[in-house]
Amino acid sequence: MKFFLKKFLDLIPTLLGISLICFFIIRLIPGDPVLNLVGERGVDPVRYAEMKHNLGLDLPIIQQFWFFVKNACMGNLGTSIVSNNSVWAEFIERFPATFELGMFSLFFATIIGIPLGIYAALKRNSFFDYFLMGTSLIGYSMPIFWWGLILILLFSVKLGLTPVSGRIELTYDIPVMTGLYLIDTLQSEVVKAEGFAPFWSAIKHLILPSIALGTIPLAVIARMTRSSMLEVLGEDYIRTARAKGMGKTRIVYIHALRNALVPIVTTLALLFGSIITGAILTETIFSWPGIGKWIVQSITSRDYPVIQGGVLIISFIIIMTNIIVDVIYYFLNPKMR
Amino acid sequence: MKQFFNELYFELKKNRGAMIGIVIIILSVIIALLAPVIAPHNPTEVFSESLRLPPSFIEGGKTGFFFGTDDIGRDILSRLIYGSRISLAVGFSVVILALFTGTLLGVFAGFYGGLVDRVIMRLTDLIMSLPSILFAIVIVAVLGPGITNAIIAVAVVAVPNFIRIIRAQVLVEKNKQYVSAAKLFGAGNFRIMFVEILPNCMAPLIVQASLGFSDGILNVAALGFLGLGAQAPMSEWGTMLSDARSFIESSPWMVTLPGLCILITVLSFNLLGDGLRDALDPRLKKQN
């Protein structure tokens, strides 16, 4: 219990710091914050004063920060200059797309990475082991913004197998339920009207971006699984199990893998941050309508409330994931208790 | 010190990957230094009669342009050669900035402990909770796009790694006897920190510097690709890629080559970093 309390207390300065950074984004940009916020479309003095008051910019800075935090806690993160929608609504609209992409690529990385890592550990110092470790270092060094383009070049342009951009063919009109197309396209009304074609379309659109985004996690997971397995396989209890005449499959998959999984799970969760970084690049390449593309667009269009709110939400999500990982780790690893 | 590097070289020589990495790094340094001599053309010179020519060894290419030309008729090979200058300079600046700041803060945090330590460590937690590109985007949003701001942004993101490594090492070293001996001789805190302790923290620092180099190159190229780093006429690899995106179907060589250069450079520093880690940290070597 003390462990959790300490974790949550550690959280406070970090969250405060993040909000402070986001709070100052708008106030540090050269130029008048009001003009930055409403755009330089010519504002008359009355409206200017009104805006300034509405934004709370006429208050002392401490009070401004207090209002910012209070509003943020209530989900009020301001309005986008470009679309005039609330930042929170824009985020909610786009988040499922990124979530779907991120989960699918982590899934891809895990179901390929873990078996490869196990196999490499069992065949230590074989040709396959060296080959896999070499390839994984290439994967780890991969500039994914280039890798995505190469995948498009190969599979979309040359072979014509997969679509180039978007989440689904535009001819389908899918009613939004969860925002996850893999689920939404399976709603009974959609299946009744179009069959499974929309579902396949969604899958086809997911494949390339997931490979692009999943490559670095795949490399990390394969390496981590290998070294974690090697460490566990050298432990005394594995030798004991062998001496007892236990079958090899049982030793590897029940005794060794279960213990090797602890660091792998932690690695998986730590990859979450890099998934978001990757999503920013992958979504730009594949015109994937998620939060990564949203943030990049907000920079080019100088949509400061979106930058501010977006960064705040994303970092909040990452911090929360790290906390959840710590908790899972606590339960997985008896040594922690 | 000399013995340290001799031993390091001896260990590294046994690691084939690290040697490949070193060779590629040396080659790219030579290419970068001799860019004006090697490059067949000026990287910004426009040949308006030869737009988007394919490489000379493919049908339709011209002999003067080995890797072809881009959408406004600049020689791609020359741009790639000059791009290596930018990438190496970027990697170097990021590592120097992060190394300097990180070492300073890390030594303070480890040596003084208490409140200093807590403040510095909270700060690193804060930076580490933001994904690198996102943090860079924040900095670029405030300072404006450009290669200098991109370098600053990427260096800030790299600092926490250095702080943590140095701090951990200082915590181990500061209780050793040679430190107490130095104290007895009346050495001041700064002397103990930077003359006595710091040289003994070299090993992990070197590894992190090599890995930081590849991270720096990769992140600045990514920012260039997003239009937030190096700007248009500059022949930075990431920026070249983002310009080439719209021609992916008609002129794939414009996309393939700059990315390949980024991959090879980043890979060589990662190979070296991995090799250094194996050579300097016997405990890790056993595992991997």
Summarize this structure briefly.
The complex is a heterodimer of chains A (337) and B (288). Chain A is built from 14 helices and no strands.
Q: Report the order of strands and helices of chain A.
A: HHHHHHHHHHHHHH
Helix residue percentage of chain B: over 70%
Give the percentage of residues in beta strands of chain B.
under 5%
Residues in helix, % of chain A:
over 70%
Give the overall shape of chain A: globular
Biggest interface in this structure? A-B, 48 and 44 residues
Number of helices of chain A: 14
DSSP helix count of chain B? 13
Q: Uncertain regions of chain A: pLDDT < 50 for 5+ in a row?
A: none
Key descriptive features of the protein:
heterodimer; A: 337 residues; mainly alpha; 14 helices; globular; B: 288 residues; 13 helices
Explained architecture:
The complex is a heterodimer of chains A (337) and B (288). Chain A is mainly α and 337 residues long. Chain A has 14 helices and no strands. Chain A has helices at residues 2-28, 33-38, 45-54, 61-73, 87-122, 127-140, 144-158, 181-184, 188-194, 197-233, 236-243, 248-286, 291-300, 304-332. In chain A, helix 13 runs antiparallel to helix 14 (304-332). The model of chain A has no long low-confidence stretch (mean pLDDT 83). Chain B contains 13 helices and no strands. Chain B has helices spanning 2-13, 16-33, 35-38, 76-112, 114-128, 132-143, 147-173, 177-184, 189-197, 202-225, 237-244, 252-280, 282-287. In chain B, helix 5 crosses helix 7 (147-173) and helix 6 (132-143) packs across helix 7 (147-173). Chain B starts with a helix and ends with a helix. The relative contact order of chain B is 0.15. Classes of the chains: A mainly alpha (337), B mainly alpha (288). At the A-B interface, helix 1, helix 6, helix 7, helix 10 and helix 12 of A face helix 5, helix 6, helix 10 and helix 12 of B.
